[in-house]
Amino acid sequence: MRYGLTGSTGRMGKEIIEVFKGHDLVLEVNDTGIFRHGEPEVIVDFSNREVLKTTIELAVQFGAGVVIGTTALSQSDLTDLRTLSEKVPVVQSYNFSTGINIMKMILREFSSLLKDFEAELIETHHSGKKDAPSGTALMLKDATERDLPIHSLRVGGVPGDHSIVFANEGEVIEITHRAISRKVFAIGALTAARFCLEHEKGFYSFEEVIRWTQR
Amino acid sequence: MRYGLTGSTGRMGKEIIEVFKGHDLVLEVNDTGIFRHGEPEVIVDFSNREVLKTTIELAVQFGAGVVIGTTALSQSDLTDLRTLSEKVPVVQSYNFSTGINIMKMILREFSSLLKDFEAELIETHHSGKKDAPSGTALMLKDATERDLPIHSLRVGGVPGDHSIVFANEGEVIEITHRAISRKVFAIGALTAARFCLEHEKGFYSFEEVIRWTQR
Amino acid sequence: MRYGLTGSTGRMGKEIIEVFKGHDLVLEVNDTGIFRHGEPEVIVDFSNREVLKTTIELAVQFGAGVVIGTTALSQSDLTDLRTLSEKVPVVQSYNFSTGINIMKMILREFSSLLKDFEAELIETHHSGKKDAPSGTALMLKDATERDLPIHSLRVGGVPGDHSIVFANEGEVIEITHRAISRKVFAIGALTAARFCLEHEKGFYSFEEVIRWTQR
Amino acid sequence: MRYGLTGSTGRMGKEIIEVFKGHDLVLEVNDTGIFRHGEPEVIVDFSNREVLKTTIELAVQFGAGVVIGTTALSQSDLTDLRTLSEKVPVVQSYNFSTGINIMKMILREFSSLLKDFEAELIETHHSGKKDAPSGTALMLKDATERDLPIHSLRVGGVPGDHSIVFANEGEVIEITHRAISRKVFAIGALTAARFCLEHEKGFYSFEEVIRWTQR
C-alpha cells in the first residue's frame, strides 16, 4: 500500500509508521512542510483539526481514501469530510480501537433493555490530555441515547480507560475498556486503510470496518 | 397471586416471603413438613435438588406453574422439569437477576465479534458458598461458546460478583456484574411468577421473562 | 448495655436495633417524641444534625457516652461535641466501617511515599444520597493531605464505594473500599458503644476504636 | 555511569538501553557473546537464571555493583548473590516497580490490622508469560504472612496487574497495581543502579532503594 501521513513527526505519527512497516510512506505532512515521493492510495491523519484542510486537498488531488482519527472536530470539519466522501472513501472515528467500537455496539443495543438501571460514565487518561470529556466518552454516551454524567480523571500515563456503570436497586453492571498501548489505534488505522482500498467513495465508521473484518 | 414456597424457612425463602408481600402464601414446604391453606397458582423453589420431586408432584397436583432457582441441578432433574413443562409453565434459571441475564445476552451476541480476544472468568462469593465455580459462572461461560478458565474467590460476605475479561495485544474489555443484595433474586422470582400466570405450559428461561417485561 | 437511640425509626436506626439485639434500648428519640424506660449508658445517633442538640442534652442528663455517625456536621456542631467530650466519652466519625478507617490510615501513611503519583478520588452511592461528595470521601482526601478532585456517582442502590487512583507515567495503584450492606456501620456503632463503656470522657475517632479492638 | 547489561538483545534489555540513554553501555552479554569496551561500575541483569553465573563473575572481575531483576531464581542462585554481596552492592527484587513495592509495604503493615478479613490474590499477565503465579504475586503473598489462594489470568498483552481482595461480612477492600508499560521496570533499574554507585557492598531490596529516593 502507498500511504500518506499527516502529522508524521508526532507521537501518534511515529506509532503509525511503526505499525505500517512493509507499506510505502509516499507523502508526509508535518510542521516542516509537505514531502512527496509518490502517489498515495490512502492518507492517514491522526493529528489535529488545523491541518484537516490540507489533508482533504491532498486526498482530492490524488483521489486517495482518507482515515481520520483527529479528535475534537467541529461540525464544519465533519461537513467538509462528508463532502470529500462524495469523491473518495472516508473512514472517520474518534476511536480506532476494536474494543471501544464493540463497547459502543453493546451500549447501543442493550441500553434500552437496561432502562430500569441508572448510568454514569468514567474516563481516565494521562495528565497530558487536554480535552475533557474525551471524544470517545462522548461517542459512548451517544450510543446509550441517554443524558448521563461523564467523570474525567487525568492522572499519570494512563493510555485511556472508559467505564460505564449501570445500577438499579439490587445490582450493578460495569463495562470497562482499557487501552494497553497507543499501538492499538495504529493497528485500527491500518485495518481502516486496507478497508479504503477495497471500498468505493462513501463516509464510513470504524464499526463498519470491524464488521467487514468479521466476514 | 396464591403461591407456594419450597424451602420457606431458609435464607432465600425468607427473602421471597418479604418480596412477595401482598400475595397469598397458601402452601409451604420445609424441613418440618408440608403446610397447605389453599390452592397455589404458582410454586417457587429456590431450595435444593433433594426436594425437587416434591415440588414437581405438588405442581402437578394443583396445575400450578413453577419457578425454579435451585442450583446444581442434575441432567435427570432437568429432564423431570422438561416433562413437567408439558403440563404447566416452568421458568428455570441458575440466576434470577436481570443484570446477569443481560450480561449473558451480551456474551452470546458479542463473543464471536471478540474472537481475536482471549477471555477468562472471575467470580467472587461469600465464603459460605460451597459449590465452585458458581452455576452462574458456568451459564456465562456457556454463553461465550468458549472453553475458558473460571477463577472462584470465596471471601467474606460478598453476595455475588461475576467478571469476564477479554484481552488482545493492545486492549482489554471487562464486563462485571455485582449483586448488591440477595433481594434481587427474589424480585426476579416475583416477575417470573407473574409471567407464569400469563403463560401456557412450556419450559421458559428467565431471559424470556426479561424480554416479556420489556414489551 | 443500656443504650439510647436517636432516629430510632429511620433506616439506619432499624439496622442499629437489629445489630444491638441482646442489649437494652432504654431511650428512643424520633419524630413522634422522646421515650424513656431506663438510664442509658451510651447514646447512639446516626440521624441528622437537626436533633444533635437533643442528643447532647440527653447525654449530659444521664452522663452517657455518645456515638455520633451523623454526616454533614457544621463547625459549630463539632465544637458542641468537643465541649460535651469534656464530660463524657464521645466517638465521632463520618464513617463507622473498619475498612474505610484502615483505608484512611493507609492513605495518611503512604500518600507521601507516593508523592510522584497523581491522584483522584471516585465515590459511588445510591441515588437517594443527597450530599456530594460524601463525608467519607472528604475524610479520605484529608488523609492524603493533597488537593485532589473527587468524582461523585449516584446510581441505583449502591451502599457506598470509595476508590482512590494513584498514577505515574508507568503504573497505577488503586485502593477501593465497598460497603456490602448498611449493617457494617451498625456493627461499627456497636463496637464504638462498647469502647465508650470502657473509656473516660474524651473525644475519640473511630480509628482509636479500631486500634483498641486490635489490642 | 558506565554500565554493563546482561541480555542486551532481549525485550527487557532494549527497554533498559532506552531508559539508560545518556549513560555508557560498556559491557554487553547476550546470545552471541560478551562484548566489552570499558569497565562497568554496575551490571544490570533482567534476563534469565542460566546466565546468572556469568553476571556474577563479571561483577567480581570489575568490582561492579549488580542490579538483578531475573525472576524464578533458585535458592542456590540467591545464595550465590548473597556471597557476591560480601564484595559489591547487590540490589535484588522480583519487581522493580515503585508501585508494587509500596503495595508490598502496605500489605506487610496492614495485613494484621485486617485480620478479620479473608483475602485472595489475582494476577493478570500477557499470555506469553510462562510462569504462574508470578514472582510478584508470591512476593505480595509473603508480605501478608497469610496462606492465601492466588488466581493467575493469562490474556492478551496485559503488562501486569496484581490485585488483593480483603472481605469480611460487611465490606471489601481491594488494592490493585497495574503496570502501564514495561518501561516502569527499566526506570526502577536505573534508580537501583544509581543506588549502587552510592552504596557499599551489601544485599539490598528495591524497597530500600525507594526509601533512599524519599530522603
UniProtKB/TrEMBL annotation, chains A, B, C, D:
Annotated localization: Cytoplasm
Annotated NAD(+) binding sites: 7-12, 28, 69-71, 93-96
Record flagged with keyword NAD: yes
Residue ranges of every copy of the Dihydrodipicolinate reductase N-terminal domain listed in the record: 1-96
Stretches of the chain forming a coiled coil according to its record: none
GO cellular component: cytosol
Active site: 125 (proton donor/acceptor), 129 (proton donor)
GO molecular function: 4-hydroxy-tetrahydrodipicolinate reductase; NAD binding; NADP binding; oxidoreductase activity, acting on CH or CH2 groups, NAD or NADP as acceptor
PROSITE patterns registered for this protein in UniProt: DAPB
Catalytic function, reaction form: (S)-2,3,4,5-tetrahydrodipicolinate + NADP(+) + H2O = (2S,4S)-4-hydroxy-2,3,4,5-tetrahydrodipicolinate + NADPH + H(+); (S)-2,3,4,5-tetrahydrodipicolinate + NAD(+) + H2O = (2S,4S)-4-hydroxy-2,3,4,5-tetrahydrodipicolinate + NADH + H(+)
Gene3D superfamilies cross-referenced by the UniProt entry: NAD(P)-binding Rossmann-like Domain
EC number from the UniProt entry: 1.17.1.8
Domain of life: Bacteria
CDD domains, per database record: DHDPR_N
Domain Dihydrodipicolinate reductase C-terminal: 99-210
Positions annotated to bind (S)-2,3,4,5-tetrahydrodipicolinate: 126, 135-136
Metabolic or biological pathway: Amino-acid biosynthesis; L-lysine biosynthesis via DAP pathway; (S)-tetrahydrodipicolinate from L-aspartate: step 4/4
Chief location bin: cytoplasm
Keyword field: Amino-acid biosynthesis, Cytoplasm, Diaminopimelate biosynthesis, Lysine biosynthesis, NAD, NADP, Oxidoreductase
Similarity-based family: Belongs to the DapB family.
Role played: Catalyzes the conversion of 4-hydroxy-tetrahydrodipicolinate (HTPA) to tetrahydrodipicolinate.
Subunit structure and binding partners: Homotetramer.
Stated name of the protein: 4-hydroxy-tetrahydrodipicolinate reductase
Organism: Mesotoga prima MesG1.Ag.4.2
Species classification: Bacteria, Thermotogati, Thermotogota, Thermotogae, Kosmotogales
Name of the gene: dapB
